[in-house]
Design a protein that fits this description.
167 residues, mainly beta, Methylamine Dehydrogenase, Chain H, four-stranded antiparallel β-sheet, 12 strands, 0% helix
Length: 167
């Protein structure tokens, strides 16, 4: 038996022929994200603040495609915001941004992915409650968002609306 086939006669919640990328799945608070093997990005669940990235704030009960791009590489899901890196190394964010956790220099919520800066050398990321972390290909650590408890690690209590390097 394969995942999703069940034994109770119920139809699967999503087509069985779809293949999801092994490391490309993340769960936030009441929502989920996944990358298919073809590089497309999908989301479902609660869509408060646009955290699904589909251009709406409508809750989705089955996976919906996020945009038309097919070059997504890795994901991070925070409580109310989402982050992703594309295969070209660019960093993207969407959802709740009230503490600058998207890293786009604003505190404006985004219901579709918005590029974070112009750098194309991001390799890993993590999303916290109201903050985010990422690592570049040179191994440097970067952080942004809420910093009321020095969770960014920059030695201050100042919220950062765009990535700052952490020594």
């Amino acid at each position: 038996m394969r995942a999703g086939e069940g034994r109770c006669g119920a139809s699967p919640p999503f087509a069985l022929s779809i293949k999801w990328r092994g490391g490309g799945r993340r769960a936030g608070a009441f929502y989920s994200l996944a990358i298919k093997t073809d590089g497309t990005l999908w989301a479902w669940g609660n869509n408060g603040s646009g955290r699904l990235g589909d251009g709406t704030t409508t809750d989705r009960y089955s996976p919906v495609r996020v945009g038309t791009d097919s070059d997504w590489s890795t994901l991070a899901a925070g409580v109310n915001h989402s982050l992703a890196i594309k295969t070209d190394g660019s960093l993207w964010g969407w959802g709740d941004n009230n503490r600058g956790q998207l890293g786009d220099g604003t505190t404006t919520d985004r219901s579709t992915p918005v590029r974070v800066g112009t750098d194309s050398d991001w390799s890993a990321l993590a999303a916290g409650y109201f903050h985010s972390l990422a690592i570049k290909t040179d191994g440097t650590l970067w952080a942004w968002g809420s910093n009321g408890f020095n969770q960014l690690g920059d030695g201050t209590l100042i919220d950062r609306y765009s990535p700052v390097q952490i020594d």
